[in-house]
User: Which sequence fits this backbone?
């Protein structure tokens, strides 16, 4: 199967694909964190830990590791997300926005989380893959 | 006041046997965008709904024995996990003026605010409830290094009220979204399902300007 094409672009260009409220937060995170750490912070937050929420399912399932595992499968493993990767490949070189959207939707459907929550983390991780190169990222373990 | 009967909803999740009520939400656009907190919706939008308004006169007696409801499917359109906000999309068309989305910048300490929500809905009780309180303090709350404008309102709140609409009568605008009660650190005990550490009048509301940024 054709390898996923991930553009090697500056992080500023990747963040430009996000909404301002997402971009501003990630820019603040990135002042003191790597892109991967920033992605983990984004996904690990639910407001202030000092405020007791008055509603909701209180979902405390471990999440970051599952996300990272699925992300790695999507970009590195030819045997999973086959249809999604084929659809991306059929469109020729795809833009960053479409790539973020497709990866977020596919992973979100697998782990049962909203794609809109995942998109900023996917953006950061794709930036890492683009910078490292697909082979280097996938061989890094 | 009656307009709020059409703007404020219960958020729920459809299960095989019933609708699990999760908290409160409110309409912010005439094409069906609805604001609530992230912790109310969680991060998955499968089977997520709002309950259609069950009344149009706020002074009418709400029959708590009536457990029928009409559900409207919603999807999660945006999530800001840092500020604990979520924006939902429903197939709703609202004809009429909506209160503008303001900010706690425009409210002073001591100003009266109104709260519309569904206290105890997580325990199966659906009663749209109006409360009055004053802004007790304006504070910045830090989460993961990001500071967010909150108002502390001088009233006790209960489960189900997360996502409530906080209204400023001074300029007829929405000022904030109710988030929860201040209770730092681990611990606490449960007495009949109630944690006494939550029982105080330090209720936190996040400024609605952050919802505006998500539209």
Assistant:
């Amino acid at each position: 199967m054709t390898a996923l094409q991930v553009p090697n672009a500056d992080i500023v260009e990747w963040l430009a694909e996000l909404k301002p409220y997402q971009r501003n937060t990630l820019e603040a995170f990135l002042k003191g964190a790597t892109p991967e750490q920033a992605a983990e912070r984004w996904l690990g937050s639910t407001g202030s830990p000092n405020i007791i929420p008055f509603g909701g399912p209180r979902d405390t399932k471990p999440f970051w590791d599952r996300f990272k595992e699925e992300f790695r499968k999507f970009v590195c493993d030819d045997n999973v997300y086959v249809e999604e990767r084929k659809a991306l490949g059929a469109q020729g070189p795809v833009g960053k926005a479409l790539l973020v959207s497709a990866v977020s939707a596919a992973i979100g459907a697998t782990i049962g989380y909203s794609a809109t929550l995942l998109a900023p983390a996917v953006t950061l991780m794709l930036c890492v893959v683009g910078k490292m190169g697909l082979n280097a990222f996938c061989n890094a373990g | 006041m009656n307009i709020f009967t059409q703007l404020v909803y219960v958020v729920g999740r459809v299960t095989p046997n019933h609708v699990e009520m999760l908290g409160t939400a409110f309409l912010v656009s005439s094409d069906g965008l609805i604001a609530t907190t992230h912790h109310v919706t969680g991060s998955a939008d499968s089977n997520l709904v709002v309950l259609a308004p069950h009344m149009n006169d706020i002074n009418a007696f709400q029959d708590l024995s009536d457990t029928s409801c009409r559900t409207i499917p919603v999807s999660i359109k945006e999530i800001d996990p840092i500020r604990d906000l979520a924006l939902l999309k429903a197939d709703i068309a609202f004809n009429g003026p909506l209160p503008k989305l303001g900010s706690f910048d425009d409210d002073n300490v001591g100003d009266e605010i109104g709260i519309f929500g569904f206290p105890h809905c997580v325990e199966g009780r659906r009663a749209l409830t109006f409360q009055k309180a004053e802004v007790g303090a304006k504070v910045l709350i830090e989460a993961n290094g990001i500071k967010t404008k909150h108002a502390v309102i001088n009233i006790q709140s209960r489960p189900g009220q997360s996502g409530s609409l906080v209204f400023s009568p001074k300029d007829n605008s929405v000022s904030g979204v109710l988030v929860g009660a201040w209770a730092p650190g681990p611990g606490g005990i449960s007495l009949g399902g109630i944690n006494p550490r939550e029982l105080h009048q330090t209720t936190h509301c996040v400024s609605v300007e952050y919802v505006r940024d998500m539209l």
